[in-house]
């Protein structure tokens, strides 16, 4: 499931493709390459993690020229970056009702009305660890409230499920990641690929690799998933330090 072109196929008007990608500190001089990578995936909705407002304007303008005429950005709060959602159809910002998430700058809840689902974009902070636990605890609360909706959590959780997603015993908040799933959400990639081992990020200090970029779908949305995969070329070519995640409904 790697390579820019492998996830591309002709889709019907009833289908939608979502791309989620941590572009690493706003992209910097890599913004042009990032825009080219995104365009190559032919997605309908894009969730950008570590998006930098202001300097990200060059990137969003390039994507606007390719049909992404709708955009909702988070607000930087204590970090140099936030999250951003771009779409070829209309978007509706929604409030999770969890001040901890809304004030973090690392969360967006966005409705995709023309495709009848809601997106919760996640970028879990890693430091201090207590903040990560509180943030993911807020995500668990959203999961409990949204479990009966057509809802998709997507983004960089900075954790995963035990050893199958990497040596995660002491990395990230595994318990709360699993609690989101226990609340009624399903790992879309595992739904398609079972116990396959694949990684999306290599920790630079240790050289250890992890699968920490995820799409977790509510039960009602899971039945609409037609494909889910990672494109690793974005990481191996240096466009970012994360692989891109795509989901088709």
Explain what this protein looks like in three dimensions.
With 249 residues, this protein is an alpha+beta fold. The chain has 8 helices and 14 strands. The longest helix has 18 residues. The chain starts with 16 loop residues before the first strand and ends with a strand. The mean pLDDT is 92.
The CATH level-2 architecture is identified as 4-Layer Sandwich
Number of domains: 1
Runs in which pLDDT lies below 50 for 5 or more consecutive residues are none
The largest sheet has its strands arranged as 3-4-2-1-14-13
Number of strands: 14
CATH fold descriptor: Deoxyribonuclease I, Chain A
Number of helices: 8
Major sheet attributes? 6 strands, mixed
CATH hierarchy class name = Alpha Beta
- In one word, what is the shape? globular
Topology:
Layout: E1 17-22, H1 31-41, E2 45-51, H2 57-64, E3 70-73, E4 82-87, E5 92-94, H3 99-102, E6 107-112, E7 117-123, H4 129-146, E8 151-156, H5 174-182, E9 185-187, H6 188-193, E10 201-202, E11 209-210, E12 213-218, H7 219-222, E13 227-231, H8 233-236, E14 244-248
Parallel strand pairs: 1-2, 7-8
Antiparallel strand pairs: 1-14, 2-4, 3-4, 5-6, 6-7, 8-12, 9-12, 10-11, 13-14
Features:
249 residues, alpha+beta, Deoxyribonuclease I, Chain A, six-stranded mixed sheet, 8 helices, 14 strands, 26% helix, 27% strand
In short:
Helix content is 26%, strand content 27%.
């Amino acid at each position: 499931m790697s390579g820019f072109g492998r996830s591309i196929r002709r889709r019907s008007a009833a289908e939608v493709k979502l791309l989620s990608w941590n572009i690493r500190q706003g992209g910097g001089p890599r913004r042009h390459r990032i825009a080219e990578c995104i365009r190559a995936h032919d997605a309908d909705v894009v969730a950008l993690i570590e998006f930098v407002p202001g300097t990200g304007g060059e990137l969003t303008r390039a994507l606007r020229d390719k049909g992404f005429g709708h955009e909702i950005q988070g607000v930087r709060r204590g970090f140099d970056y936030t999250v951003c959602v771009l779409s070829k159809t209309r978007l509706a910002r929604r409030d999770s009702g969890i001040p901890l998430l809304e004030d973090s700058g690392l969360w967006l809840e966005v409705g995709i009305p023309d495709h009848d689902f809601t997106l919760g974009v996640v970028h879990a902070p890693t430091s201090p660890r207590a903040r990560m636990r509180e943030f993911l605890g807020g995500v668990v609360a959203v999961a409990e409230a949204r479990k009966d909706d057509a809802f998709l959590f997507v983004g960089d959780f900075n954790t995963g499920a035990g050893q199958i997603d990497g040596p995660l015993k002491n990395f990230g908040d595994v318990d709360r990641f699993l609690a989101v799933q226990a609340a009624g959400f399903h790992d879309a990639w595992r739904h398609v690929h079972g116990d396959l081992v694949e990684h999306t990020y290599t920790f630079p200090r240790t050289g250890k690799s992890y699968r920490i970029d995820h799409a977790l779908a509510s039960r009602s949305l899971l039945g609409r998933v037609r494909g889910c995969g990672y494109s690793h070329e974005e990481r191996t070519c240096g466009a970012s330090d994360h692989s891109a995640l795509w989901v088709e409904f």
